[in-house]
């Protein structure tokens, strides 16, 4: 950065952001999505995925639209819960970024709690 004769800093065409503005848009987007009750995954993409997975078990299966919608709601609730738990583990480790090891630990804890009868975890 250079200084012009007027004393103002000259940047190379990039707007200068102060530290308090970094991440503001991301936080705004997070708050907006938390208040939104609509589904996040596009319906048609999810429907294609369900039909492809179901075809591996039995061909010519038919689905009611309400069944696909129920599956999508359950899947999104599950994924949101998984990411919430993953984020808590990252925060506990004094990090702000989730890592694959956090997701692995969430899965292990969930398996211990629900598949092996562990109490108090």
UniProtKB/TrEMBL annotation:
Classification via InterPro entries: H2A/H2B/H3, Histone-fold, Histone_H3/CENP-A
Highest taxon of the lineage: Eukaryota
Major localisation: nucleus
A Pfam family the protein falls into: Histone
Keyword Nucleus belongs to the record: yes
Stretches assigned to the Core Histone H2A/H2B/H3 domain: 23-109
GO molecular function: DNA binding; protein heterodimerization activity; structural constituent of chromatin
GO cellular component annotations of the record: nucleosome; nucleus
Annotated keywords: Chromosome, DNA-binding, Nucleosome core, Nucleus
Compartments (UniProt record): Chromosome; Nucleus
SUPFAM superfamilies: Histone-fold (SSF47113)
Similarity section: Belongs to the histone H3 family.
UniProt protein name: Core Histone H2A/H2B/H3 domain-containing protein
Provenance organism: Pseudogymnoascus destructans (strain ATCC MYA-4855 / 20631-21)
Source lineage: Eukaryota, Fungi, Dikarya, Ascomycota, Pezizomycotina
């Amino acid at each position: 950065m250079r200084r012009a004769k007027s004393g103002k800093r000259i940047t190379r065409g990039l707007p200068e952001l102060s530290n308090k503005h970094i991440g503001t848009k991301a936080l705004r987007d997070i708050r907006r999505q938390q208040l939104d009750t609509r589904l996040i995954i596009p319906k048609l993409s999810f429907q294609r995925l369900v039909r492809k997975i179901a075809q591996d078990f039995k061909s010519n299966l038919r689905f009611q639209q309400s069944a696909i919608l129920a599956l999508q709601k359950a899947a999104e609730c599950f994924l949101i819960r998984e990411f919430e738990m993953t984020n808590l583990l990252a925060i506990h480790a004094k990090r702000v970024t989730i890592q694959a090891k956090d997701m692995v630990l969430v899965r292990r804890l969930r398996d211990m709690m629900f598949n092996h009868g562990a109490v108090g975890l």
